[in-house]
TrEMBL record:
Species this chain originates from: Sinorhizobium americanum
Major site of localization recorded for this protein: membrane
Record PROSITE patterns: NA_DICARBOXYL_SYMP_1
Protein's name in the database: C4-dicarboxylate transporter
Membrane topology: Multi-pass membrane protein
Organism classification: Bacteria, Pseudomonadati, Pseudomonadota, Alphaproteobacteria, Hyphomicrobiales
Length: 311
């Protein structure tokens, strides 16, 4: 199944490419170099922020076309349109269930470890305006507002603004329309499928800049906040990683085993994308590459397109 395809693909890539040409090695080296530069030359490090920002902007530029092509062609190729609803329904149940489990794991670990207990933070010293702005944003987030925000004002507007959920909404509707039109829409589907090749090649080209983006982002973070300030938050950071480790290997590990593959094999397969998120502090940076890899691993295009952008 998918597990064996992941292993075979990883082994094939490993066998042909020298270790220093692997993206994850380059990103790791870039993160290490960024930490060193930010520590020893903090002023220079803070000036390198545009490198990280530019890379994230490059990735955001390509996310909308990747989602549109993946979802539209995936749904257009489905003979049973009821499956689209079933996939979306299953994805929603999965997100709700595992978000709740993640919350439970986080609360248990936080109550056991109590990472902020020794930090002696005075609430009066916090920026009242910043706290008020976060509270206002949280208050504004209603289910109706969220659903209304998914519907774009114009068809082009969603792509121009790069709103992922709006692009996904348009992609699903367009894919359903293509599937309903049937044979007469085949030239359009063929064109879109042909267009996926240069778009994903463009993703591969942009990913070559990932080490530069990770280097700039890490140099800025360490240059601005310093290793010492991060060390002071070691307990908090350690608790976060412990919680993530437990959730990934215990909860998601059980799901992976139930579905017949190893969570470790999956992590090894997507290690470049995980390191990219770590280096740039942006999950969007990993989205195009992750969608491409999941499709190569044997996941259906329609499932990849519906699940990953919403997750």
């Amino acid at each position: 199944g998918g597990y064996h395809m992941i292993i075979e693909h990883s082994a094939e890539v490993r066998g042909k490419t020298p270790f220093y040409r692997h993206l994850y090695v380059q990103v790791l080296a870039a993160i290490a170099a960024g930490i060193l530069l930010g520590h020893f030359y903090p002023e220079l490090g803070t000036e390198l922020k545009p490198l990280g920002d530019a890379f994230i902007k490059l990735v955001k530029m390509i996310i909308a076309p990747v989602i549109f092509l993946t979802v539209a062609t995936g749904i257009a190729g489905m003979t049973d349109l009821a499956k689209v609803g079933r996939v979306a329904g299953k994805a929603m149940i999965y997100f709700l269930t595992f978000s709740t489990l993640a919350l439970v794991v986080g609360l248990i670990v936080a109550n056991v470890v109590q990472p902020g207990a020794g930090m002696h933070i005075d609430p009066a010293s916090l920026d009242a305006k910043a706290v008020a702005s976060y509270a206002a944003k949280a208050h504004e987030q209603s289910i109706t507002g969220f659903l209304m925000n998914i519907i774009p004002t114009t068809l082009v507007g969603a792509f121009a603004e790069g709103d992922i959920l709006q692009v996904l909404f348009i992609s699903v509707l367009f894919g359903l329309s293509l599937a309903m039109v049937g044979k007469k829409a085949e030239p359009v589907v063929d064109f879109l499928q042909a267009l996926t090749l240069p778009i994903f090649r463009l993703v591969a080209i942009l990913m070559k800049a990932a080490p530069i983006g990770a280097f700039g982002a890490m140099a800025f973070t360490i240059g601005k906040y310093g290793v010492a300030s991060i060390a002071n938050l070691a307990m908090l950071i350690g608790t976060f990683y412990l919680t993530s480790f437990l959730f990934v290997f215990v909860v998601l590990g059980a799901v992976a085993r139930y579905n017949g593959f190893s969570i470790v094999a999956l992590i090894r397969y997507i290690k470049e994308e995980l390191l990219l998120v770590l280096g740039t502090s942006s999950s969007e940076a990993a989205l195009p590459g992750l969608m491409n890899k999941m499709e190569k691993a044997g996941c259906k295009r329609s499932v990849v397109g519906l699940v990953i952008p919403t997750g």
